[in-house]
């Protein structure tokens, strides 16, 4: 049975909106991605991983999709990629398959000499299909849900976890985030069957607008034994006018996380005149500024690296720090929607209607990251709706 596609799918902010926010000139841009030509020996600099004729995603049942959040499957040393809203055909044609979906590959080439190639799909190992057991465009007991969008995935201790946001509307009114709730789903058979933890973080449609637990990124388990998690308000719509770019940090012991004992988290907070880890108060924002969409934090080669879609700047930007609770470097635009304005975009790879920007945990080093970037056309059934691979990114 074919499901109806979600209505009001995430729009990219218009160029007029973006440039007005930055106080600049209105410059036109086409919908087709224009990546700079690279020599044959260079790493991937905008290689499409789906929505291309005969690509490896199509062989597993995915025609067009976004996100492709990468994670390490530690039980067998392979790699998984978690997609958002997905269609079976190119350019969002064919059946709407739901969200999230997953493709996998056996080995990842961190040098970038060869692009990512998907070799099997979950949950069945056959054609890709929606991982979670819920209905899109329906009330599943939490209120009307358009779809559930994955924000990050991690595997440790034999269990796989996906943190997700349930979307109530892709077009929230000013000052609202449009979410229903957020939650954590887990799989004990490496992605085949999924269960929800009973606790959910209430969202906009449940009376808690702008929850700082809307979108998460699993930075990983540090050598100190803590699982570090960054989180922020839901802004996968890129239209949350109250987002403000605030990001918070908390940590939890892996065994507590597995048990769903989320109240055991410790919060990085400015409390009693100093920054400290504490249970006495909630986390304090560690970064604020421009509106931020999808984001990703990973420990790469002993250093913490962050990437995010800067909605205001119209770029995928990066930062880094020696520790999760240390001072972060200034934001650095890496891939931009328009490389002609502002001046710090000049010469950068240009991908109109970009978003996402997930760090591959298998990246070569903290100064040579692989990023998975999404591109949205803004109009249904027009190309491209896909993810692209960029290597050699130095934050």
Automatic annotation (TrEMBL):
InterPro entries found in the cross-reference section: DUF4185, TAT_signal
Species for this entry: Streptomyces sindenensis
Origin: domain of life: Bacteria
Protein's name according to its UniProt entry: DUF4185 domain-containing protein
Signal peptide boundaries: 1-42
Keywords: Signal
Residue ranges of domain DUF4185 in the record: 53-390
Matches recorded under Pfam families: DUF4185 (PF13810)
